[in-house]
Amino acid sequence: MSSEFRAGGTDLSERRRSGVSRGAIVDLERSEETTRIAWSADGAARIGALVTVATIADDARIGQAYPGLAAAAAGLATPEIRSVGTIGGNLAQRSRCWYYRNPHTSCLKKGAPLCPARSGNHLYGVVFDLGPCVAPHPSTLGAALLAYDAVVRTDRRTLPIADLFGDGADGTVDNRLGAGERIVTVAMGEPLPQERAVYRRAICRAYAEWPLVEIVVRAVIAEHRFAFIRIAAGGVAPVPLRLPAAEAALEGKATDPAALRLAAALAMAGSKALPQTGYKLQLLE
């Protein structure tokens, strides 16, 4: 098996214990660039890949400039995981599908020709059926960074966050990183004045669970209208997903209940639920 990078190791350690991952481990070297949050003259942040989730959640300047990212970081996993898990690791983590996680079963991501969840138990699967794999992408920060149009720099190239994940058509991978390619930094755009943001997730337990559905919403409200709106979802597709129909329903519109109800209904535009995942559409709405 090919070698794998280790940063915080929270996901890798579990896969090693279960026997899903058995290759060599390459510990990522820490550097000033990968372990800090740097700020440009226009107030934009560049976050090193080894910056922990807890640091992002707790950093006051991140919270002010990018409140949706900070809220998503604060909402995922547990304090123990957030203290060691990194932003790069969260973006590059592997699928949570129980077929993939079982060392005794085969799936697309382990070289099989078909996705066993599609004809098997897919209770926690997608409602936007975009490709052969029906497992939702596990990265909460991926959804948040999609709402912020972040840019990822690897040791080989620079690409928009959406291109890191692709369109979900390739069910054999969780991201588009090449063999041996590692994330170095995540660049944020210039902060928007007066931005408001919220992160919400629906989970099976009281805490410490991967979300059934999660949403990151960014908004700038001026004169009781949505002057700017971005909505991204996780847990519903094989990649983090923007919801353009819901955004269009709110952009420039008054902040009234009717507009919000329409946007909630349009959040499901383009969805295609599996036999066992229709309940997720209600959660998404």
Q: What series of H and E elements makes up the topology?
A: EHEEEHHHHHHHHEEHEEEEEHHH
Per the principal axes of the C-alpha atoms, what is the gross shape? globular
Q: Could you list the spans in which at least 5 consecutive residues all have pLDDT below 50?
A: none
- Major sheet: order of its strands? 3-4-7-5-6
Helix content: 25-40%
Question: Can you characterise this structure?
Answer:
With 285 residues, the protein is α+β, with helices and mostly antiparallel strands. It contains 13 helices and 11 strands. The chain has helices at 10-18, 53-58, 60-65, 67-75, 79-84, 87-92, 98-101, 116-119, 140-147, 161-165, 244-250, 257-266, 279-284, and strands at residues 4-6, 25-27, 37-39, 45-48, 151-154, 158-160, 183-187, 195-202, 213-222, 225-234, 241-242. It has a 5-stranded antiparallel β-sheet. Strands 8-9-10-11 form a 4-stranded antiparallel β-sheet. Strands 1-2 form a two-stranded parallel sheet. A hairpin with a 3-residue loop joins β5 (151-154) and β6 (158-160). α11 (244-250) packs antiparallel against α12 (257-266). The N and C termini lie far apart (42 Å). The relative contact order is 0.14.
In short:
The protein has 285 residues and is of the alpha+beta class. Helices cover 30% and strands 19% of the residues.
